[in-house]
Structures are given as structure tokens and as C-alpha cells.
Amino acid sequence: MQNAGFAALGLNWKYLACDVRPRELQSALDGAKQMGFLGLNLTVPHKLLAVEMMDVLDKSAHLWGAVNTVRFEARNPQGRWTPLGLLADDPPGKIRTHGFNTDADGLALALQEDLGFDPAGTRVLVLGAGGGAGQVAAKRLARDGAAELFLVNRTASKVRKLAKEIGRRCPRTRVTVGFPEGRVDLLLNATSLGLRLNDPLPLDEEKFQIEQAAAVFDMIYRPTETPLLKLARQRGCKSANGLDMLLWQGAKALEIWTGKAAPVAAMRKALQRELSVKN
Ligand code: ATR
Predict the structure, then answer these.
(1) For a substitution probing ligand 1, which of 136, 188, 191, 203 has the most ligand atoms within 8 Å of its CB?
(2) What's the confidence (pLDDT) of residue 92?
(3) What is the mean pLDDT of the chain?
(4) Are residues 113 and 200 in the same domain?
(5) Is residue 161 domain-shared with residue 136, that is, in the same domain?
(6) What is the mean pLDDT of residues 111-118?
């Protein structure tokens, strides 16, 4: 997806995947800096660890408490911090790390595009709200004006803390730990259940019937139809997988590194091609 995006913009850049152990994250960041990397993405479990390691944090990383996009920057000849990707020459001075988070934007754009979903005034059930992705989702939905959030997590203590934090930051959103009575506008799965072939449903159907949800969004994109999404389709709910969330968080990251509008169509095509090969 990123390589297709760079090619569409005519950039001679390359995106690589590297496995890094959590305890070596700082060395890996330093190494990338030394090797002239322009930026990077981080995934689980580095997103939380990286917050403490950045020289500067963007508002998005502060807000969502996690970093998934890093941009290396140096001072331009006028002394202004500038993305390395936009500097013509090798920077003579210090290089700094600037941490961003594009996951929340990715989710909001995907919900809008795939389900026509606008969080303002809605009731939403979040499954796996205590995980990294679930916490960002719940906070973003609250900030975007959700009226009621129902937070469910295998380890309930994780969501009790989150519910308090959202209550403090977004007092207009009613936050409940547990399943709702009645209908919701959106059921969002942020658990990892559905990734593996024989995973059980992430939803306890004795506590909540899926047809009580107008729409179902599963953050998982591989397989393209999880058992939860299959059930949603069979019961007539609108549904979408996490592919567009992946796409949009990547598109936003590309914009952060390049300073250019993301060539979303080319990125989407590459992503779909790659996933159809691996599915
Ligand atoms: P990420 O950061 O990608 O969200 P994560 O932090 O590992 O990944 O979170 C995964 C989510 O799936 C968590 O909500 C986790 O529940 P716990 O907080 O109790 O660990 C949930 N999850 C994982 N396996 C599960 C299972 N077998 N049953 C129910 N929930 C599960």
C-alpha cells in the first residue's frame, strides 16, 4: 500500500517491514535515524512504548495516548524543523523524532465511508474496549459526540479505568461498562477474536443479540469476513471490515511523511491486491 502510494507520487522511496523486539525499540529508532529513514509506522506493542521515546508528540499522539507514525525531522536552512522527506540536502544538524497517531482518523474515516456512520448522538457497543485499538476507538467516538458508549472487555478492570477517563474528558458521553439494553447504532469489534480460523465469536449472544445493532464494524481485515461479520450479514445488519481503517491510517501516515495528498485509489488497489493474494 505504501510502496504503491510512493510510486503514484513519483517518489523514489521504499517501505520495509522489520521485526523489532519491544526491548530494542529505542535502538531501532536510533538506528533508523542514523540510516536516514524518513519515517516509520509502529504496531503492537510498540505504539504505547514509543510515546515516551519521541522528541516531540503531535496532538494526535497526546490525545490517543499512542504513536503509530513517526516522522524524522531536521532544521532547514532557515532553522525551521522540517520533515526529512521534504529536505533537499542531507541535514547537517540534529535529527528529531516526531510522533503522531493516525489510527483514530483511520477509524473515523472508515466508519463514515463504509457505513455512513457519524458518531454524534449515537449509542455504540465496543467489544475489546480495553485493548490498544479499542481504547483509541472508544476515546475517539466519545470525542466525536457519541451519546452512550457500552464498553465490554474480557478483563473488565481495563475498561473501568477507561470509562473513568472518558467520563472526565467527555462528560456529555454516558459510559457504561457492560452490555446495553435495547438497540445500538453501532457494534464495533476491537478484540482479536476472528483472526484465527476457529475463534469463537467476540460477542456473547446471551447478553446482546446482533440484530439489535444497526451496523457492525470489525477492525479485523483478514479474513475479510469474520464469523461476526458473517452473522451480521445473515441477520441483516449493515457491516464492514477493517480494511478501510487500515487504508486510511496508512494514507494519513503517508501525508505526514510526504506533505502531499495521499493517492488513495492507488493505495487501496495495492492493498486489495495484496489481501486477495493472501486470503
Ligand atoms: P490491540 O492493541 O491490537 O487492540 P490487544 O491490546 O492485545 O491488541 O487487545 C486485544 C483485545 O482483544 C483485548 O481487548 C483483549 O481482551 P483483554 O484485555 O482481556 O486481554 C481481547 N481478547 C483477546 N483474546 C480474547 C479472548 N480469547 N476472549 C475475549 N477477548 C479477547
Answers:
(1) 191
(2) 77
(3) 96
(4) yes
(5) yes
(6) 98
Smallest CA separation from ligand 1 atom 12, residue: 191
229's grid cell? 461479520
Let me know whether 40 and 167 are in one domain: no
Q: Do 125 and 165 belong to one domain? A: yes
CATH number at residue 14: 3.40.50.10860
Which residue in this structure is represented by grid cell 445473515?
234
Which grid coordinates belong to 133? 485499538
Based on the residue annotation, tell me whether 33 is a catalytic residue of this protein: no
Domain check: are 147 and 272 in the same one?
no
Q: Is the CB of 66 under 6 A from ligand 1?
A: no
Q: Does ligand 1 lie within 6 Å of residue 198's CB atom?
A: no
Question: What is the model's pTM?
Answer: 0.94
Q: What is the pLDDT of residues 165-220, one digit of tens each?
A: 999 999 999 999 999 999 999 999 999 999 998 999 999 999 999 999 999 999 99
Grid cell in block for residue 130: 480495553
- Both 141 and 236 in a single domain? yes
Looking at the structure, do residues 211 and 257 belong to the same domain, yes or no? no
Q: Report how many domains make up the chain.
A: 2
Domain that holds residue 117: 105-241
Residue 190: CATH number of its domain? 3.40.50.720
205 & 140 share domain: yes
CB 261 within 8 A of CB 255: yes
